[in-house]
Write a structure and sequence with these properties.
Strand content: 5-15%
Shape: elongated
Distance between the termini: 72 Å
Structural class: alpha+beta
Order of helices and strands: HEEHEE
Helix content: 10-25%
């Protein structure tokens, strides 16, 4: 495509599908920002490059743009039990099926502390000064 506002970047399309938008090097930062603002969907994202410094910076900029994000790696898809997976924004609730926190969607955790040794005082050393 010739524009980052193309329909392909604004709709949720299930593929496999590869979309390519070639941009001038000088427009790198604005193009990254366009990725953030032009699509309300964010199931999976990926970044491929040879420059590790750029990869780190771009991944940081794009950190909220997908439920799962890959840097120089293939998408593992929904490998339940091996890697948490779930979309964000309009692609889901960012639940991570297969992850340890998935059950918290249906629970309300509460910490309970109980002392079995009677308390004879409730003072702390800083209260004695």
């Amino acid at each position: 495509t010739t524009t980052p506002t193309d329909k392909i970047f604004q709709e949720e399309i299930f593929g496999p599908l590869v979309s390519v938008y070639v941009y001038p090097d000088k427009d790198t930062q604005s193009t990254l920002e366009d990725v953030i603002k032009h699509s309300p969907y964010s199931l999976t994202g990926a970044l491929y490059c040879n420059d590790q410094e750029f990869a780190d910076a771009a991944a940081q900029t794009l950190r909220g743009t997908a439920g799962n994000f890959y840097v120089n790696d293939k998408s593992t898809g929904s490998v339940v039990g091996q890697q948490p997976f779930g979309g964000a924004r309009l692609s889901g609730t960012n639940d991570k099926a297969g992850g340890p926190h998935y059950m918290l969607k249906w629970a309300s955790p509460q910490a309970v502390k109980q002392t079995f040794v009677p308390l004879h005082a409730v003072g702390y050393p800083y209260m004695e000064k």
